Amino acid sequence: CRMVEVFAEHQRGHGLSDDAGQVTPQHVTAYADHLRHEKKLSAKTINDKHLTALRTIYRHGKRVFMVEVNPAEGVAVRADKVSTKARARASSEPATFGARIEPISA
What we know:
Radius of gyration: 20 Å
Mean pLDDT: 82
């Protein structure tokens, strides 16, 4: 799978082992951060393609006793979006232009 090859290349490029049994959740998180911030991929692409591929490969590895843990399990990228509810609330509030409004003391 190409996604797994890209992960292995990332590991080697950062001087880390690409041995499946040596990979930790921290390695997977660092890889996801790399994809998000350096490669500018969306959270959806990272979660649905890259992390899903890693989880699937590690799940199979656990099933056939090649690895003991799935380091990709539980790793996910959160989208940097404002929720629809927060957006609606913001549009109904008076604009402050980024300034804090505090009462004037006499």
